[in-house]
Design brief:
It is a single chain. The chain is an alpha/beta fold. Helix content is about 25%, strand content about 30%. The chain has a single domain, classed as Phosphohistidine domain (Glucose Oxidase, domain 1, 3-Layer(bba) Sandwich), CATH 3.50.30.10. It is built from 3 helices and 11 strands.
């Protein structure tokens, strides 16, 4: 992934998982997120109690994080956010796994790694 600094913004380019182009506020986590019980798909909020972003909503933001944690249910929960209109605007994975890639594909938001 490469980044280009421009006045007032940062442009990220990486290996594409789901194509697209967006602009938005970045929400950065140094921790993986559990999709199975770690997010509330109805609100787009991280509800994993010990997570650094507990209680923070990712809806309409560019979610930057290491990726998925837990079972393959992760992708189903992130797909629910798309169906409910609470998905992140885009996702940037700092570490790609098959679980994270599947979640990005079913969520259908622009995603790079």
């Amino acid at each position: 992934m490469t980044s280009v600094a421009e006045p007032g913004r940062l442009v990220l380019r990486g290996r594409g998982i789901v194509p697209g182009r967006v602009e938005g506020e970045a929400l950065v986590s140094h921790e993986t997120i559990s999709g199975w019980g770690g997010i509330d798909p109805a609100t787009g909020t991280i509800v994993e109690r010990r997570h650094e972003l507990y209680g923070v909503c990712f809806t309409g933001k560019v979610l930057v994080f290491p990726g998925a944690k837990g079972s393959s249910g992760w992708s189903g929960f992130f797909q629910s956010t798309r169906l409910m209109g609470t998905a992140p605007l885009a996702m940037v994975f700092t570490h790609l796994t098959t679980k994270a890639a599947l979640g990005a594909i079913v969520t259908r938001v622009p995603t790079v790694t």
